[in-house]
Write a structure and sequence with these properties.
It is built from two helices and no strands. By secondary structure, it is an all-alpha fold. Belongs to the MCRIP family.
Length: 104
């Protein structure tokens, strides 16, 4: 998806020559502003992680003798037994849809 395209503005025509009441747009406190540098950093990390995952898959299937090794704790922390890792692609999709819904 395109990096931060400006939201489309709605234009209202005057009715009977009356000026429509304009309310200032409020930006929610939870809305984050992403800079180009932020987007580049996220893209870099994402692409690097994809390469690591491909190398891990290759080492599991015996394609390469050396490469990344997945760390697994020998004694897992009981406080993390209900930990669920975030699905970053799903999170980005939800953020994207929320922006579309909020701008309409």
């Amino acid at each position: 998806f395109p990096p931060h395209s400006p939201a489309q503005k709605l234009v209202f025509n005057r009715v009977n020559g009356k000026r429509p009441q304009v309310l200032p747009q409020q930006v929610s406190a939870t809305e984050e502003c992403y800079t180009l540098a932020h987007e580049e950093n996220v893209r870099f990390i994402y692409e690097a992680w994809q390469q690591v995952e491909q190398q891990l898959d290759g080492s599991r299937s015996g394609e390469s003798a050396c490469g990344p090794v997945q760390y697994v704790e020998k004694t897992p922390n009981p406080g993390l037994k209900n930990f669920v890792p975030i699905d970053l692609e799903e999170w980005w999709a939800q953020q994207f849809l929320a922006k579309i819904e909020n701008s309409s």
